[in-house]
UniProtKB/TrEMBL annotation:
<dbReference type="GO" id="GO:0070819">
    <property type="term" value="F:menaquinone-dependent protoporphyrinogen oxidase activity"/>
</dbReference>
<dbReference type="InterPro" id="IPR029039">
    <property type="entry name" value="Flavoprotein-like_sf"/>
</dbReference>
<dbReference type="InterPro" id="IPR008254">
    <property type="entry name" value="Flavodoxin/NO_synth"/>
</dbReference>
<dbReference type="InterPro" id="IPR052200">
    <property type="entry name" value="Protoporphyrinogen_IX_DH"/>
</dbReference>
<dbReference type="GO" id="GO:0006783">
    <property type="term" value="P:heme biosynthetic process"/>
</dbReference>
<dbReference type="GO" id="GO:0010181">
    <property type="term" value="F:FMN binding"/>
</dbReference>
<protein>
    <submittedName>
        <fullName>Flavodoxin family protein</fullName>
    </submittedName>
</protein>
<feature type="domain" description="Flavodoxin-like">
    <location>
        <begin position="3"/>
        <end position="170"/>
    </location>
</feature>
<dbReference type="Pfam" id="PF12641">
    <property type="entry name" value="Flavodoxin_3"/>
</dbReference>
Length: 171
């Protein structure tokens, strides 16, 4: 099986998970790791399985990931799984469904089998702390607790969970 792990990352969180997914997939398959800007629709069409990663921006996949999904080619027999990183410790199940929907829709439209999505808390870039705190209307004490919760993420447990996600897909 030929596997592509591709991702969009600004702070390094999604990239860290992409590398873990690639490492695990490479144990059983030929695997390439590419930043989203390095791929083309023709290139992606040559893979049997695609792992596509995105941070959440304002509760949605990053715009470059959505754009990539919109230009994928129809490919029979291809599979896709997603992975996302975000600053929140957890989201309700219904939110996860909404985050995954652009991937599910692209897969339905292109005849690609959707295999699920791994999600992981990451650390919000320092430059975004004040604007996000203000947007969410969170007091300083609550925000300090959120920052403490996300500090050091993704951590080794997150990396191990990403690898376990891949192992389950390939089992």
């Amino acid at each position: 099986m030929k596997v592509l792990v591709t991702y969009f990352s600004q702070s390094g969180n999604t990239e860290k998970i992409a590398k873990a997914i690639c490492e695990e997939a490479a144990k059983t398959s030929y695997t390439d790791l590419k930043k989203l800007e390095e791929i083309t629709p023709d290139m992606v069409a040559k893979y049997d399985c695609i792992f596509m990663g995105s941070p959440l921006h304002s509760g949605s996949l990053a715009a470059p990931v959505k754009e990539c999904l919109s230009v994928l080619k129809s490919t029979s027999g291809q599979q896709m799984a997603g992975f996302i990183t975000h600053m929140a410790p957890a989201y309700p199940e219904q939110d996860m469904d909404a985050f995954e929907e652009p991937m599910k829709t692209a897969c339905r439209e292109k005849g690609i089998e959707y295999r699920g999505c791994f999600d992981c808390q990451g650390f919000l870039a320092e430059a975004m702390h004040e604007p996000v705190q203000k947007k969410l209307g969170i007091d300083d004490e609550t925000w300090a607790g959120m920052v403490k919760q996300m500090t050091g993420r993704p951590n080794q447990e997150d990396v191990d969970n990403a690898k376990a996600f891949v192992s389950r897909l390939f089992a």
